[in-house]
Amino acid sequence: MDVDKEGKAIDLSHYRGMIGTILYLTATFADADHAGCQDTRRSTSGSMQFLGDRLVSWSSKKQKSVAISSTKAEYIALSGCCVQVLWM
Description:
Layout: H1 12-25, E1 26-32, E2 44-51, E3 54-62, H2 70-87
Antiparallel strand pairs: 1-2, 2-3
């Protein structure tokens, strides 16, 4: 991000400040069970995103892949949570 479409220099501190503000205001929580479904052995991810003290988004869904450990299940849940924050 050095220049915009018209060739003007971009002030990176402006964007860094906006991202810092969003990260400061946004609290995220992610969790997953390990192999919670007895049939498929897939884990279930859950996440919540707060803006200040207000809940703005939440999700609970079965993961698409089978995690071989509880740590991997947590990483999959956290990556989904990060995707949601970036979308917001």
